[in-house]
Amino acid sequence: MQFLDTLDAKHFHTEIPAKPMGKYAHFITIRITESYPLFQTDGELNKARVRAGVTHPEAISRLAMFKRKQSTPERLTGRELLRNYKIGDWEKCDYNVDFSKTTPDCILYGFAIGDSGSEKSKVVVDTAYSITPFDDSHLNFTLNAPFENGTMSRNGEVTSRINSQDHILPQTFFPSIVTLKDPTEAGFLYVFNNILRTRHYGAQTTRTGRVRNELVGVIFADGEIVSNLRWTQKIYDLMKDANPTQINSPDPLNEDDVLKAAQGAMKTLMNNEYISFAAFLGSDFEPLLSNVKQVTGDEIKLKELLTQANAESKDYAQKHILKSAEKGKKGSKKSAGATAE
User: Fold this and answer.
1) Using the 8-state DSSP alphabet, how is residue 7 labeled?
2) Burial of 317 (C-beta count, 10 Å sphere; 0-12/13-18/19+)
3) Separation between Cα atoms, residue 142 and residue 80, nearest integer Å
4) Spatial contact of 176 and 65, defined as CB atoms under 8 Å apart
5) Ramachandran assignment for 226, one of left (phi > 0), alpha (psi -120 to 50 degrees), beta (any other)
6) pTM of the predicted structure, to 2 decimals
7) In a 3-state reduction of DSSP, which class is residue 194?
8) Alpha-carbon span 258 to 338, nearest angstrom
9) How confident is the model over 32-83, as pLDDT tens digits?
10) Which of 38, 60, 129, 136 lies 20 to 30 Å (CA to CA) from residue 287?
11) Which residue pairs from 243-248 have beta carbons closer than 8 angstroms and sit at least 24 positions apart in sequence?
């Protein structure tokens, strides 16, 4: 079943291949914070000391959004949809506890279950970095836990339940490239939909962590493209060198300026790549995005998409995962029997 009429079928496989076949779909994404999320390890915000830009060599500290902070919420969005429409072995899946090994989530995003098998992720996500420096992108808040009456004291005693925590500011921008290896059309749309739908990232996702994903394009290639850091640095260069400059610390960046610079930076960087690619950026991307929304925004088409993605994943699992696991068990039993004799 074909879902998209804006893309050439040559960009996709008809089934999920067992070996790497050199087809890559890169989702060119800007992640924009819309509340006060927490991307942290050991109680501190993640950050890195790097060069500000490609042509601006001064060193700055940038906020870092590690890969698992990005991929985990997106795969959970897909799992939620599969459960909602009761597609595939959704009842068997318990994230990080027990995987069905047959759903699009398991096959595309990977899994590992000790001696019971594993599958390498076909969705590649790397650490993303804020465009603006760390000092201009975070704020420290004091947190408290009041009593029932709403105050911090009761019967003359003041509670010690007071703490402070660094939070990332709203309108902080994280350029991020999500790569899907050897996509089928249904797998491509499954990952695309997860990126568009996911709204919360980082710690305490029930109360904060609101993030919006703005896709500025998709690039199909026969290899991997530039890193998130290189892209971020090039965006910084273009915005810093604009007349007048578009980076005025500590003021937040203008979203339109960021999206325009993101497209320009990617086009410039891709011109220096040594791979074959087809880029859908700017006005070339709009028909594709509209086409995707027609599919994912229609419940009937969305269920057809999820059903197709699940059928492809189940077929892959039957051929390359479950049979291999059965052979391994039979081999173990034969070895045990030989040892016993």
Assistant:
1) S
2) buried
3) 34
4) yes
5) beta
6) 0.88
7) helix
8) 66
9) 999 888 888 777 888 999 999 999 999 999 999 999 899 999 999 999 999 9
10) 129
11) 247/131, 247/132
